[in-house]
Design a protein that fits this description.
Three copies of one chain form a homotrimer. With 346 residues, the first copy, chain A, is α+β, with helices and mostly antiparallel strands. Chain A has two domains: 11-125, Rieske [2Fe-2S] iron-sulphur domain (Rieske Iron-sulfur Protein, 3-layer Sandwich); 135-345, Naphthalene 1,2-dioxygenase Alpha Subunit, Chain A, domain 1 (Alpha-Beta Complex). Chain A has six helices and 17 strands. In chain A, strand 3 and strand 4 form a beta hairpin. In chain A, helix 1 (151-159) packs antiparallel against helix 6 (330-345). The radius of gyration of chain A is 22 Å and the shape is globular.
């Protein structure tokens, strides 16, 4: 039987940026499940189902007592593993009083959570993004955009960058993005999709002209790596036209920007759109920080506005619409296929 | 099988006032279908389905390139017949890339659209309202009221003017409207319903007292002609009491106001309530323009408030309610019957 | 077959405070039924179904003509028994033109209404709250909180006061409330549930410390009487620690506060939360009035916020949640059982 959800379970998803979670109780819905997070006295993130077993009150609206959580309605008290350790008016604690704990793993400044009832895949299977780590040698700006659209709409958007020309003209789009054909490669075994577009002689869009200082045409490479279902990375290489990476040694004549997205379903029709922009130049340049941060936030908002609109149209129009795909959609279609496969396996 | 919609298809509907549609792309939902309108270089109105064939993006949020439309998401480009003439990243255009064009006809300052898959009825079958034309000899004020209520509620309202006494007291209602019996005539073949109420000696309501300057009682005739499903006209004749139309020649001792409504379903439960008030006196009198415009807007708003409320009650109460009809409802019941007939034929 | 509603019919419910209903037409939805109330020339409250028989227009949006109601849409006119006495445009009144009248009984400053099609239970069966009467010897502050949560959530809340410790700390909650066991008594025949918690040596919460002036620990008794489905009373007795009621004669060394709630379903998922706080001390003390009024309003709002949140979670989470009950829930579970019995009998 086909699954009725479009969200693969038994997967690791990014739940939060590491610095979002501290002493305060923190609530976020992941793949339709309400989860409460906090960082314990030892600095480790815990995640529990955000519903008291007694009368459904959200634990995230409750109080911490050291590493224990005291429900804000009637005082049911839990330790960080979810076991109930105290109830009001009696000393006997019911045997079944326990809220579900979630496996959590923190790396590269991201907090990952395992959603699903199966045994978690080893944490070594979680994709890496070392440029996001504190010692990764990159300067990163980032934020979280609330998106009222389903995961697959954001995935469509990111896997086909030809939309940059139309939706993001004046930011990152130039005519060459839409015109240059892509190459798509699907590594079925590793579960990775790669989409590349190498523009050897292209106009430099404002986003890069202003930040790199390049005055003139550029070599612009866009190499996407997508690790379904959650992590998307766009390796962007910018150099003056004709400047190619040396046969050996560091590619220090080029500017590198790693654009990372974590696409985490909130519900079937909404998504946590984590975005991060990391650069290997201009470290410590507050003006450049501010420029990247603002430009990328505007680009993301253009996407969010478009995708929110599409989600509204899906709700309004119903199932009548039949889409039509062309070459630019190869990466997105491959991504959908892998997601479907994960979903059916779950 | 009974249709599940209350909206007859294979019909002409008023989509817009002519002057609403110019160079900008213009979106309006008609009978549940999202449509994008624009006026081409030659001045002719085109109407296309408002969804790109690629990924559903609304063409109305896109850009014009002369008489071509370039989708704002990935650049799919259409001519004014809906044929796709360019796509990004490749030169071959898929054979099925075409958005649906709608037949359109503009007359008497109104833009009509044919909704339905059947061959359009000849444009000569579209009802006329010559007083709305630029050279019709009338001065017209008009607007469009968004109505969050179904077509049949507005139709009920307009076909039974006895409500003027209660809902529009102090504007157009006087006791005689509710007290005077109506005559109803249904021309089944032509598909026209006529409802007349002739008050020979009636109080003059503020709406007419102030505009005509008549000081005292009046002869007030209300002659409705309804052309299902969309066009409603109320021929209103006001004269000092006892003044009747001459046996021959122009009725120049009376004041004539043509009150025209176009009732176009937006969805099953909302309606575009186009209203127009045309008079054959006081041409060029800006104060009178402003008076008519404001009074009619307030009257329409009283109806809109009442009908929006009824629509909310239908949603809240469900099907439990059983209405009770009396003589005043003859016209509305005939109108419902003709609409049902059109709907079943569609 | 199990009823699909959680609201027992064929019951008396509190519809309003007596002073809410005067000369103006007053609308309130009770158990999903829209009702229009008014006080006739003789001072008696009438209640009619709030829908005109003609086209569903709410009579509460209409006009009074003495003790008659004239529909604001087309002028159908009703007397206070719901009989139609005039219609527009004709003298014959249809035999079936009648809106449903509701039995009403006013006592102890409350207006009760009978919901259901069965013969009403005698008004002597309506529970009394004599401290609310004008001559009851108590000073009462009261209000109505709109609650977007189902009746059973409010009932759960009120039947288990251990939540005072957690949700109302700093107001009425102290550790002893959660710690002290309750006794529960169900009088099946009379249909009354009693839950008592007697704290012999307890901290005095701010609500009582400031109002009674007691400086030190207290004897605090909470005696709940619940008369399903609507009336809830909490008899609260506060005295300095060790002061018990005398064997005979008035208990004048203690402070008594009667906290009364009427829990009237508005719909399946919203409730009219009538709350009243009556005290037998500090009569005529405007400062104390204001203190009680404000403190209780804040306490009620804490409950409303929590219960509104739970209702939202029920809607969002669906049926997956399985609650877990302990000793403190004995009263609430008994109340649910009696409500279910009433519902099945209806």
């Amino acid at each position: 039987m086909a699954p009725t959800t479009q969200i693969p379970r038994n997967q690791w998803y990014v739940a939060a940026y590491g610095d979002e979670i501290g002493a305060s109780l923190f609530a976020r819905t992941i793949c339709g499940e309400p989860v409460m997070f906090f960082r314990d006295a030892g600095g480790t993130v815990s995640a529990l189902a955000d519903r008291c077993v007694h009368r459904r009150f959200p634990l995230s609206k409750s109080n911490r007592d050291g590493d224990k959580i005291v429900c804000g309605y009637h005082g049911f008290t839990y330790d960080k593993t979810g076991a109930c350790v105290a109830v009001p008016g009696q000393t006997r604690i019911p045997r079944t009083a326990r809220v579900k704990p979630y496996p959590v793993h923190e790396q590269d400044s991201l907090v990952w959570i395992w959603i699903g009832d199966a045994e978690p895949s080893p944490v070594s299977s979680i994709p890496r993004a070392p440029w996001l780590a504190a010692d990764g040698g990159y300067t990163t700006l980032r934020a979280l955009a609330p998106l009222k659209a389903r995961h697959s709409l954001l995935l469509d958007n990111l896997m086909d960058l030809s939309h940059e020309t139309y939706l993001h003209g004046g930011y990152i789009g130039t005519p060459e993005v839409a015109e240059t054909p892509i190459t798509t490669e699907v590594d079925e075994e590793a579960g990775i999709i790669r989409v590349s577009r190498h523009m050897d002689d292209a106009e430099c869009p404002p986003f890069y002209a202003k930040s790199t200082g390049i005055d003139g045409r550029i070599t612009r490479w866009q190499d996407i790596e997508y690790f379904p279902p959650c992590l998307y990375t766009l390796h962007s290489r910018i150099a003056p036209a004709g400047v190619l990476p040396p046969a050996s040694g560091p590619d220090s004549d080029a500017f590198h920007v790693e654009i990372t997205y974590a696409l985490t379903p909130e519900t079937e029709t909404s998504t946590h759109d984590f975005w991060m922009v990391s650069r290997d130049f201009g470290h410590g340049d507050a003006g450049m920080d501010s420029f990247f941060s603002q430009m990328q936030a505007e680009v993301v908002q253009q996407d969010v506005d478009a995708l929110n609109l599409l989600e509204e149209l899906i709700a309004a129009d119903g199932e009548a619409y039949q889409e039509l795909s062309i070459n630019i959609d190869t990466g997105a279609l491959a991504a959908r296929r892998l997601i479907k496969k994960l979903n059916e396996a779950a």
